[in-house]
Amino acid sequence: MSTDTATLVAPTENAPEQPEAAKRKLGRPRKFAPWFPAVAKTMRESTTLRMALIWNRITLDAREMRKLYRNREFRRLYRIERQLYMLSDYGKRPLTDEQKFRRAIERQIQ
Length: 110
Description:
The protein is built from six helices and no strands. The chain is mainly alpha-helical. Helix 2 (36-43) crosses helix 3 and helix 2 (36-43) crosses helix 5 (72-88).
């Protein structure tokens, strides 16, 4: 080895151990209120945020409601709830009493 490359390569046995680079935390942690899932579930059927908050007995002023619309965690929860609603319940009518009775009888027969 020439002396030029020897100065560039540090010996591994004498090198001090450096801690592994930890992931850098970007920004502030996301805000998550315990009532986010309940409000998102109420809003899944196209209910407005204001009505969903009233039904869940939560009081927010206009500025806090605007912040809630921008909150990533809340938007993620709402989007998931909305998609699940559209996949499972959209367009289904509730059963009439006759239909409920008929299904109960059919289950007993089988």
